[in-house]
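Researcher: Re-running this chain for the archive, since the previous output was lost when a drive failed. Same request as before.
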Amino acid sequence: MRKILLLLLMLPLIVTAAPYNRNEARPVNDVVFGQIESVRYITQQEVINSQRNGWETLLGGVVGGLIGNQFGGGTGREVATAVGAVAGAGIAHNRQQGQTVIEYRLVEVLIKTDQGKLIDVIQDVDQTSVFNRGDNVRILYFNDGVRVDKEF
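Model: Regenerated structure tokens:
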């Protein structure tokens, strides 16, 4: 029963969405070609406060209690379990407090398409693909967004 409870508590930590990799094949809905009219590099900072929803504290308490339960016997085991649970919860709670500053490096690219339309795209900076005014590019449209790449 303990193993099942522990597995259920750890399941949200194990199941996460896989990030998109640049070398990953993806279906493209549309491709539009054009030329860069202007380029602007942007740095954006975002301060993220910890959510403190309690899951980490709960999991820390459970793990600490399981570790504490391995020591002592009788009443000593109960005390060790309680101390382990409180210590684990305290460590997890303190670890999740505070703020994190994330800095995003973005590039804004204004493109005049071969059909004469202007399209503005903001995306992450890729050091392997630095844009300049006059570069020929392609705009790739996916189900979940857009990506601009240099046309080679």
